[in-house]
Design goal:
The protein is mainly β and 239 residues long. It contains two helices and eight strands, in the order αβαβββββββ.
Length: 239
Amino acid sequence: MRKLFLTVMMFAASAAMLFAQTEPISAVSLGSQGGEKGFFIALQGGALVSANENTWTYGDNHETEELFSLQAGLALGYTFSPKWAARVMVEYGKNASAGNTDQTHPFSPYIPHYYPYEFKSLSIFADAIFSIPAPTFKWTPKVYAGIGGAHTYGFADTMYGVPEGENEQYAWHPWQEHGWSHHVPAFRIGFIPQYDLNDKVSIYADFCGEFYGDNFNGLKGGISMDFRGMLSLGVQCRL
């Protein structure tokens, strides 16, 4: 996953350096701010934090940092007007969750247990993007909302807290089962501050909150949906 993230960032930096020397943006050529209709492609990646059933157990076991991971996304979009655009984005990410530790003491009520697991996800979203009027042509603040879905797979138990020599049938949770593959609906909202290097290439940050159906992490109950917060850096090119 780190190699994927580094590849995304190297591509973004290379593309920005390649196009930054071309004709600068002007009031006549508004570039990706939306002055011209047309397609664009974007590549981004960054940090991801998981928040779903039982992620509080990571903090209880001093493992909060394990809730953070990396993700990457590829988007194809179309600019309809100076204010409106749309995109379709595919994302890959690595996520964290855990089993419930309340009232589960398979070995002894005095032995703490910890039931974390990780899983992968492929998500797809269709976003509507609104550009907020800005006092400068180069900076474009944007807000967006989208609907989509996700496929989760690759569930792997971390198996913490098993006393040495004990029966490993309880290496994970004694009564919860997260399953191994799921499909869930989703929606999201986000904010993009975008900077136009010229009339073809822009760099941006993407602050996003994604909400998934309750079975995203393989567990139902507790909160009625699963959440991911993401911060991405990316590069966008007009085609």
